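stuck on this one:
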Amino acid sequence: MVSPLDGELLPLSEVKDEVFSSGAMGEGVAIEPSQGVLHAPADGRVVMTSPTGHAIGMKTKDGAEILMHIGMDTVNLQGKGFETLVDKGDEVKAGDELVKFDIDEIHSAGYIVTTPIVVTNSKDYEKVSVVCQGEVKVGQEILDLEGATEKEASTNENPQMA
């Protein structure tokens, strides 16, 4: 999976929201964005767009379910400073623009823009690994999802189980 934002990569544990920092939503990373454009982190389909533009969900061609949540408590802005560029059901390619957001406007309203990028079905993977740190650019690989999904694993014969 590639970075959907330009900015500083942070561990999910540093997100100032227990739901994300605890890993309850799944494994992933957070990015402190330097540019106000959220891009698709992989090829796939948009499965959820928040009416306020602050969150978007997608399912990748490989089956990963990704939630990207721009900022904390930014739902309270009721869409101010956000422009959603895609609709639920749209097919997207890695790098396609999904949401534009005004970092300065969000900050001036008293909110942070730290953006968690979470694999909500990370339990379906043997391992979710962060593959870089520090400054990242859109399109740079940030996460490696390893292993078959549970569905695939349950339908394959496992010689060790025989």
